[in-house]
Amino acid sequence: MKIERITYQKAFITGPFLQEKIGFEAEIDEHVQSVHDALMQLKSMAEDFHKKANPHLYQESAPVQKLDASFYSSSVINQSREPIPIISKDVEKMEIEIDNAKTLEELDAVLNRYVTFPGKLLPQINAKRKQLKALDI
Fold it and tell me: pTM, whole model, 2 decimals?
């Protein structure tokens, strides 16, 4: 088989979800140069071009620090004993309805609409009930 033309193309990663494709095509004469040598020369040309065009990608940087299990056990995140707060649209809706109640009857109507409600709303409910009783509405 006689090979007259070869093509080499390589994709270089330049960032997250970004790549640059560099390729070369060459005509070869098998009597003067082997296909393997020509292909290796094209590969070298593509890599050299990429290094010259993107020198920042080839700079030496500090090695990445490997973290062992002791890092995670002593981290500030794990020292916190407070539960992670959960945001619920239903609870937010209840809080708004409780705040918007203008009479004790409206407050009772809000509470009767729900079969259950979170215990964290009790202080808000009690404060609202006390506020409405003080207004004698």
Answer: 0.43
